[in-house]
């Protein structure tokens, strides 16, 4: 599979939750953010996990989404068209599935 399990952040949570995850899991570059139905809202990158009063939605950016049914070629196209971020998000039926790493596509 192109996707790895990674527990997402829930929307509405303080950005301190993301900062704590990045501190305890130093290999992470970004974390997906999902709503209460498991739909992907975006990504919070390590560099933006600051601000004591901020919520994760205030620090997230658009995520590149790749459907689990996508071919390798279409996944590569989606990731490259999305600016080739180091981390992309896998979805199935519109819901969060896991994360993929750009290097795995190469």
Quick take:
This protein has 106 residues and is of the alpha/beta class. The chain has helices at 15-24, 56-59, 72-81, 102-105, and strands at 9-10, 30-34, 40-45, 60-61, 65-67, 87-92, 95-101. Helices cover 26% and strands 29% of the residues.
Describe it for me?
The two termini are 14 Å apart. The chain has four helices and seven strands, in the order E-H-E-E-H-E-E-H-E-E-H. The chain is globular, with a radius of gyration of 13 Å. Helix content is 26%, strand content 29%. The longest helix is centred in the N-terminal third of the chain and has 10 residues. It has 106 residues and is α/β, with parallel strands linked by helices.
Mean pLDDT: 92
Strand order of the largest sheet: 1-2-3-4
The tally of helices reads: 4
Total E-strand runs:
7
- The helix/strand order is EHEEHEEHEEH
Q: What general outline do the C-alpha atoms trace?
A: globular
Structural class: alpha/beta
Low-confidence stretches: none
What is the distance, rounded to the nearest whole angstrom, between the alpha carbons of the first and last residues? 14 Å
Instruction: Classify the helix fraction into a percent range.
Output: 25-40%
Radius of gyration: 13 Å
β-strand amount: 25-35%
Major sheet details = 4 strands, mixed
């Amino acid at each position: 599979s192109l996707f790895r399990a990674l527990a997402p952040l829930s929307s509405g949570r303080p950005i301190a939750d993301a900062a704590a995850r990045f501190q305890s899991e130093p290999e992470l570059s970004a974390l997906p953010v999902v709503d209460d139905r498991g739909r992907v809202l975006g990504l919070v990158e390590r560099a933006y996990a600051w601000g004591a009063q901020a919520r994760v939605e205030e620090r997230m950016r658009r995520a590149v989404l790749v459907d689990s049914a996508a071919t390798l070629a279409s996944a590569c196209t989606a990731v490259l068209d999305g600016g080739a971020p180091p981390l992309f998000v896998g979805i199935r039926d519109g819901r969060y599935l896991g994360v993929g790493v750009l290097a795995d596509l190469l």
